[in-house]
Request: fold
Amino acid sequence: MTLRPIQFVYLVVPVGLLLTALLNLYAFFHRRSDIWWTPLPKAVPVAASGDRVEIFARGTDLRTLLDAGRVRVTGDPGAGVLAADDVRIRFNNWDRVRAEQAPLLVLYGFTIGAALVLVGLTLTGHVPKRRPSTA
Reply:
């Protein structure tokens, strides 16, 4: 089967789009999920983390225990009662990162489907032939 120049273009462009979309999807699904933690210097105080996390110790909210002075650190030189400012929370933002990228994944899926259709049409010879111009 010989390809006309226009068929070659109809084959190369969709294959390029197909490979690009496939590589992006592969990279997305094989990305490390443990790198999305909040950096330690930007860790959030317990008081500011209430919208995303609640920590309970023996059925009591950690903020309540810290405010009452009922949490202690023992065994090292800085032993003593923990204050609310001594406790920081780090979040794993992987779920939010994935949710933000969902529309892009849909676009990649659409691109893969369209490219496969174009490649299939080109390889089966269903690309319309150009009509000679009547100039």
